Amino acid sequence: MSRIDGRTPEQLRPVTIERGWSKHAEGSVLISFGDTKVFCTASVTEGVPRWRKGSGEGWVTAEYSMLPRSTNTRGDRESVRGKIGGRTHEISRLIGRSLRAVIDYKALGENTIVLDCDVLQADGGTRTAAVTGAYVALADAVAWAQTKKIVKAGRKPLVGTVAAVSVGIVDGVPLLDLCYEEDVRAETDMNVVCTGDGRFVEVQGTAEAEPFDRKELNALLDLASGGCADLTAIQTQALAGTL
Amino acid sequence: MSRIDGRTPEQLRPVTIERGWSKHAEGSVLISFGDTKVFCTASVTEGVPRWRKGSGEGWVTAEYSMLPRSTNTRGDRESVRGKIGGRTHEISRLIGRSLRAVIDYKALGENTIVLDCDVLQADGGTRTAAVTGAYVALADAVAWAQTKKIVKAGRKPLVGTVAAVSVGIVDGVPLLDLCYEEDVRAETDMNVVCTGDGRFVEVQGTAEAEPFDRKELNALLDLASGGCADLTAIQTQALAGTL
Amino acid sequence: MSRIDGRTPEQLRPVTIERGWSKHAEGSVLISFGDTKVFCTASVTEGVPRWRKGSGEGWVTAEYSMLPRSTNTRGDRESVRGKIGGRTHEISRLIGRSLRAVIDYKALGENTIVLDCDVLQADGGTRTAAVTGAYVALADAVAWAQTKKIVKAGRKPLVGTVAAVSVGIVDGVPLLDLCYEEDVRAETDMNVVCTGDGRFVEVQGTAEAEPFDRKELNALLDLASGGCADLTAIQTQALAGTL
Amino acid sequence: MSRIDGRTPEQLRPVTIERGWSKHAEGSVLISFGDTKVFCTASVTEGVPRWRKGSGEGWVTAEYSMLPRSTNTRGDRESVRGKIGGRTHEISRLIGRSLRAVIDYKALGENTIVLDCDVLQADGGTRTAAVTGAYVALADAVAWAQTKKIVKAGRKPLVGTVAAVSVGIVDGVPLLDLCYEEDVRAETDMNVVCTGDGRFVEVQGTAEAEPFDRKELNALLDLASGGCADLTAIQTQALAGTL
Amino acid sequence: MSRIDGRTPEQLRPVTIERGWSKHAEGSVLISFGDTKVFCTASVTEGVPRWRKGSGEGWVTAEYSMLPRSTNTRGDRESVRGKIGGRTHEISRLIGRSLRAVIDYKALGENTIVLDCDVLQADGGTRTAAVTGAYVALADAVAWAQTKKIVKAGRKPLVGTVAAVSVGIVDGVPLLDLCYEEDVRAETDMNVVCTGDGRFVEVQGTAEAEPFDRKELNALLDLASGGCADLTAIQTQALAGTL
Amino acid sequence: MSRIDGRTPEQLRPVTIERGWSKHAEGSVLISFGDTKVFCTASVTEGVPRWRKGSGEGWVTAEYSMLPRSTNTRGDRESVRGKIGGRTHEISRLIGRSLRAVIDYKALGENTIVLDCDVLQADGGTRTAAVTGAYVALADAVAWAQTKKIVKAGRKPLVGTVAAVSVGIVDGVPLLDLCYEEDVRAETDMNVVCTGDGRFVEVQGTAEAEPFDRKELNALLDLASGGCADLTAIQTQALAGTL
After folding, report:
1. Inter-chain touch F194–E211, beta carbons under 8 Å
2. Which of C206, C191, C54 is nearest to C130 (CA)?
3. Please, which residues bridge with residue E61 across strands?
4. B181, C190, D6, F202: most buried, per Cβ within 10 A?
């Protein structure tokens, strides 16, 4: 059985990562997972939020947002509605936690890096593309901060790599990296964030229709681990300039 | 090695469930997991949100909130700040999804049930206590709606049971049902929602410090499955009036 | 003529006061006036709001709120609506003023006590139960602050006691402590806050239907004074541990 | 002992009422109580709020606001802060209740009258000036609605008159109609709303410093009744065009 | 062809400027352009916004608002809606920029002047009346600050005068100072702010129906320049006390 | 004297227009004016806002926004702050008015087109690039609606073309299409929107430092007319597919 777009169950969509997409940001990436396109910028500022002052430690946080017409039907702008929806909050928090998992706050020193992940076009997997792209923007921003001596010489704030992918069960078959059409039909949906050494940072699985059993969960985790490993390789190539 | 409160790693805190705590709500429960106390009410209204009208299907949703002094230090009221925080949104959405997993919308008919979960005292595991207590309030509300013929005769909107528990790794040891002090020290934190037949509705694991490997993940899932089974038994007793 | 619940016109509903209902708050009380149940916590923090800094004086303030399903029909959460309604504001201000009437700011020193009054179940008289219960929570919090030397030795921040009750004219008869059903039918509704020595802190009378004359006003004030005296006795017993 | 501005204790400040101050509003009044100036407009619209539709009854409501520099120090605009303060809410509600006390909803029919009371200059007593001026604007608006046949022929929506005044105890002396300087120094502050026949619509007394006893309360009520009677006479003259 | 109110195309409506309309504000003016009435106050405070501290320079800003019933149909209060509309923002910014054009920040020193322009009655041209009136209030406030030595001796913060007028093309004829009825029918609408020496501070022209050509633009600019010169003369008289 | 980037005073920056940048929107364009990049989408929906229902006429509106790191220093998200700033409102309104100038509402029928203009990278002239790009997106959306028969056969909702450019006086020299660095230094700043036949839709000139005289205004209008003509040619090529 082949998928809507002809992929095998364990195959990622074509992934592209363009670095340096903004002339202003210290790190910036346009990442695509098939038709999903997310623009990720990393902004470095000296200083930390008030509750962290004097700790000698830095901070990394993220904000996720969708452009109103990134989806098939135009959505209201959250700035116009005057409040941020639960889904936006949830994904922003997920991205922030994921990136903080590979940051050494002490090495970063009292500096803050904000990741902005704006979805320009959505076709499923926007949060996982955002995590994967934001990591590359973060790496560029950290390198910039090292060059500018904002991070002290010899210190390495980045202690690993991180990538994310969605998996799900569609018509009983576990699939990697769901596009929107597959996502809508999935009985179970899971987002997994892994480090480059294959360990888990986040595992978020949700039964959309039927609850799932341990065997299905294991199949999904296997798929996701493989997908994250592939994404890690692509990130490495992007940062090496060989993508 | 024993825990702060003398429990074994795979032991729940004392759980109490008091039904009928409100004279107004169609279902209401005061649940405690040790010192964590959550007041759950289920409110039945005829009709559904606009986007669901004419579908013949019902809706179940939830709102979670903490009283300002449910925690050790008083927090600002979200009504005073004028907006709901990301954590509140995230937990409200989790509770709603968990309960919808055991609802047959068709059988419910065009009726809405809103679960309010207000934390009166927090000591870790507020979201899992909320899911577990809300299920009992929901069951009472569904029974009420059946008695009142709001749900048509012979229909069973409730197609299963659902309970939730937290697990985590503290000092390298996987523990069930973390209290606040353990939660703060946990390297990995996971919330798991299971149905009564042992399947998963939600699995949300987060590395707070070090990423976790597959073996640790498996150990946590084992612990959580056992904890949810224990909670299911307690819910059953509570609903049978034998708790 | 007897009342709905068999009381005489000048009789309070059964009043219960449970102290120490929260393990976190410096003072906490679950008070009930019949079926009206309000959870009151008193939170002590060192320091005062900015506008009071350097004055050597403390501050006491209050926030009142109703749980969404504390009433017969579920109300929207003010945190979800994003703003606090006029009634909530008005009652919060009333509670704060009432308690400040028995506080010696100098003796309190630059410390702040916040009273949170959350209505768990409403059946009329929520604001008067809140004032009456909050006073007991405040007394416990002040005693705690004295023990912890947050209040300087020998100082007595609490200079009196305060209690509140509603009165109203129903079918031409002045009644004490209206339950919801009486409140709805009242032609005139009055909330009175008295100190333990029988003086007035607040008198708020409103003609719901017909304006009231001086004679009716006098009858209501007499009833209220008696009711407050009864409540003062109950508060004293609660604080003495003899309730 | 004479007052700051030479008045006797039971004397009102000079009161002026200018009708027809707006060419747009159905009723409009610029009222002054000494240096306190409030601009009151009454806007008639056909139809009622949703919750009242089909009842055959009308509705009257009010909104109070202070211009930012109506006071000695400029205050923030509530529109800029994005929320309405508790005091504003409380006063808007008081004005609305006061006017509704003299309205026959049935006679008004399904029409709505909104009173806007904007304080142009504040010197104490803004809420009482607002009630007193709003009544005159309301009377003009009702007359307009009768002329335009929006109110059915022969119906009299206005069933009485209403006026309000502040009283307070300053240095132990009960005073009528406090200006700002007196208000700040008052030990007790009371706002009283009376109908033209001398009955009470609202009595709101607050101990600002010391609680007050029944004797003081009686003295204040006597003063207020006299003051309201004087204001009723002035309103009558204004409406007769003989002021 | 004569206009609705009998004016010639290049004629202003009757303009009145009453100074000293508030006893609190450092400068205050009630200005009318025909039936348009705007109350302008200038509030002086020592100090500047945070972003300007230490610069040695002052700041001038403005807030514009319409009373709910300043228009023919009552509008919602922006404070009640909880947000400021685009038009209000736009006009507030225009007034601020216009006045800052004649301020020497260095001479003003680290002081702030806030202009509040509240429309009491609207009949077209509210923003131009606001600019013209606010200038007079500003001049009075600057003079006050000089007298009080808040502005250092010998310094002149006010380096020119500023006035504003609307122009438009109605039925093909360029007209000065449109009233509401003309404004609604205008094909092109332009607001022009000039200094007393005839130069432009703001030119804002909008095609409401048909785009306009260069010749029409020139005719409108000629009209506006003449109108502003007339207003400058009236402002000068008002400040000289000879109006 | 040559400009920062070597342009002559009357020269535009390099302009690129890429159509079809979104797979979801009915019209979409990525436009760049030098380093300024704006993503414009046009969303067609059947139906109109409530106030326009039954009129037989359509509606066109626009929303402008800047990504947080589109500028040199990261700005707060308006969705996070909970309100839209004045500048955003002002520009959104300008874009909407500009496009409505070339729309025949009757021909559009009761359909709505929303233009979203999101600035990905800012270097001066974001609002003029937005108008110019949005026109192309609008043209594509109208063509789509004609193809889909949402616009009735034979009807032409688009009655002209529209483009916008900024001009300003820098060091006394009038310059076309200011980049950020020039914009900051400009004494006078003007945004001009023209139709393809050379008439004006909007003229917004502001003296940033010195007021400007009629001669300077004329020079700026000449420059802007030329610049808009050049942009019109580029738009035409883009729509013809020959850019």
Report:
1. yes
2. C191
3. E114
4. C190
